[in-house]
Structures are given as structure tokens and as C-alpha cells.
What we know:
alpha+beta; 6 strands; rod-shaped
Amino acid sequence: xxxxxxxxxxxxxxxxxxxxxxxxxxxxxxxxxxxxxxxxxxxxxxxxxxxxxxxxxxxxxxxxxxxxxxxxxxxxxxxxxxxxxxxxxxxxxxxxxxxxxxxxxxxxxxxxxxxxxxxxxxxxxxxxxxxxxxxxxxxxxxxxxxxxxxxxxxxxxxxxxxxxxxxxxxxxx
Length: 173
């Protein structure tokens, strides 16, 4: 009744446990006698198993992804830091000139708010790079503020009045 049937034969329960222990010890001894992974890689004549081949491929793909991501980040930062790197110098100069004109137009728009309030703008309300104050003229109830040098923007006149509250750019092509 206490017989245990195994591949090796028929054993009583205590003997069957001894066989289990013996199999366990021999399997552990086998794994301890295996060469280290470094030793396997050091011997070039040993063929790689499928698992080792997949691990090598995985390493290749992981490093390829890391390098690609690093390059993409570096290129993105370069484009962000130097957005005009590949833009022609004449185009950049034209853009700068347009920006200067727009900045000055915004100053004259602020002057319209001062004129709308019934005040006269002070000398600090002038375009950047202009050392001469704006020209203020009165003709009856009309107050007109002119830019002192509109030719620097390619214009013949740049002015605002208290009647229209609009910035006039005259002579712009």
C-alpha cells in the first residue's frame, strides 16, 4: 500500500523521498558545474543558442533606439536654439526691418490712446533707435504727431492725429 511507482522502479515512501533528494542534488550540481557566461563568450568556436542570438539582437535594437532618440533630441534642440540657421541673410534683414517698423507702429498706436484721452504725448514715447523726439503740430483742435525720420523705414510720412486714431504710413511700397 505504501508503494510509490516511479520511472526508476517501485519504492516505498521513505525511499522515494531519498530518490527525489538525490535527483535534486544532482540537478543543482549540474548547474554549478556549467561554465560562466563570460567563459562561453570568450570561446569563439562555441555556437550561440537561439536565446543568446535573440539577446544579442535585443541589445542591438535597444542601443540603436537610444542612439536614434539622442540624435533626434540633439537635432530638435539645435533647430529650436537656431531657428534661422538655414535662412538667407537678406530674408533675415528684411524680417528685422519689418519688425522694427511694426514696433514703431505700435508706439504710434499708444500715442493715439494718449491723444484720445486729450493729452499730449511726452518725449519718451518715441520709436527705438530715434534720438530726435516726435514732431507735435497743432492746427486748431487737431493735434498731429509725426515721426521725425520716416525715411529710415522707407516711408515719406508716419503720423497719427487726435481725429482719426489710426496710424498712417505714407509712401510704403
